[in-house]
Amino acid sequence: MPVVQRVPSVAAEAGVGIVHLGLGAFHRAHQAVYLQRHLNRHGQSQWGVCSANLRSNRALVELLREQQGRYCVAEYRDREQVTLRDITVVREALYVGDGGAELELLLQHMAAPGTRIVTLTVTEKGYYLSPATGQLQVQAPAIVHDLAHPRTPRTAPGIVLEALRRRYVAGVPPFTVLCCDNMPDNGQRTRQAVTGLAAPQDSGLAQWIAEQVAFPGCMVDRIVPAMDARAFSRLEQQLDCHDRAAVVCESFSQWVIEDHFPLGRPDWEEEGVQMVADVRPFETMKLRLLNGSHSLLAYIGLLAGHESVFEAISDADLALFIRRYMAEEATPTLDMPPGIDVAGYARDLCARFANDSLQHRLRQIAMDGSQKLPQRWLQGARQLLDAGRSIDCTALGVAAWIRYCTEPLPGREAQVIDDPLSATFADIAGRFDGTLRVDAFLDLEQVFPAALSARPAFRDAVQRAYSALERTGMGKHLKTFAAHN
Ligand code: CS2
């Protein structure tokens, strides 16, 4: 049984100063914890949160309402040590997927002068930007809807835009928009999504947004596996915690934010947040080292028969492969400010992946590959090729992703591919095999920018890796890979 340290919430009042879109596990275990610590320290705060789910999980919203927004976060350092926190900073929970009164309420909260920050965790696909180019996908049905019905939006950028419009019309200064999703230049990308929607509708509003609205970038980091029956029963048995809204996560947490909040912000530094002028180097480091390795572990690990990150990193050949990717294909692409110990960061990551108290399923990470690969692997691969370096690890990752998206895992039934492009993948798989299948994938412009897919060195490396996988299977291929390096 682990030793449990309990951190109760203090009796405290928090007014709503932040509206959040995307009430998932990550938000509850990351941003909400920083705000809770701030509230516990000061005993009162203007930075309570109204948090909304846009499309999924109405049941969680209802549960949180029954619990007056209260829930627990269990932070596992390892099997032996857990911190259990009470969270009370979520003052209101909304589900706006059905539109109507709750959407209106959310928009009213966002338009209220007391709301000074709007934060988002809606996952990469929630911005409707092309993963390869960052352009708004104006043909996407949800965006077509928001362009036609801007007052009753469905997408996150549409909701942010309508709330900003209300403030613009009422002469209320705009809130700051803080994107907390794992995208490169996430502040700029969010700005692009919102202004991409605004421009065709109202040029005055679009200009006001361009001139007045701050979209600072930030890097968020905490491993928060999706909750499942096993996680809930462990909480009940080990911690006597019977909260169905609880979240389990690692004890590590990091947040680096660009300091640009015209209407003010919490004293986040007190809670260990790093406030910086330029977040991009931190973001790139995290995307390529942590998330890049995660995606490799997911596709390669699943093909090698593993289920969780812990299992995958416990496979000696795969661990060696990941260390090689970090040292030879991720680290050389980074340009960090002085004083950042990248090798130490990479070592710590391997230890975090090996945290056996988290059941982090590889299938969770494997979701939405089309949205994740460009920033995790492909931008770095271009730099590596420019520098005349090898991209063998990345190429094996791309080959494994293609196989995962088109073939059942060894010894299994065909799996459901959770990705906005899943229909396209199925179509390619039905029409092509082998080399032609790989070519069809590499020609997907939404994923592979032409500047990369046009390079023979890139295509050849992926083709070689794919045919090696077809010939030998992943487990054996990893062994050969490890033996030759
Ligand atoms: C993961 C991330 O699911 C995924 O794609 O790589 O959610 C990862 O756990 C977080 O970014 C860690 O901060």
TrEMBL record:
Domain Mannitol dehydrogenase N-terminal intervals: 17-269
Location of the Mannitol dehydrogenase C-terminal domain: 278-469
Keywords: NAD, Oxidoreductase
Family annotation (Pfam families): Mannitol_dh, Mannitol_dh_C
Protein origin, superkingdom: Bacteria
Matching InterPro entries: 6-PGluconate_DH-like_C_sf (IPR008927), 6PGD_dom2 (IPR013328), Mannitol_DH (IPR000669), Mannitol_DH/Oxidoreductase (IPR050988), Mannitol_DH_C (IPR013118), Mannitol_DH_CS (IPR023027), Mannitol_DH_N (IPR013131), NAD(P)-bd_dom_sf (IPR036291)
SUPFAM superfamilies, per the entry: 6-phosphogluconate dehydrogenase C-terminal domain-like, NAD(P)-binding Rossmann-fold domains
Coiled coil: none
Protein name: Mannitol dehydrogenase
Protein's organism: Pseudomonas versuta
Source lineage: Bacteria, Pseudomonadati, Pseudomonadota, Gammaproteobacteria, Pseudomonadales
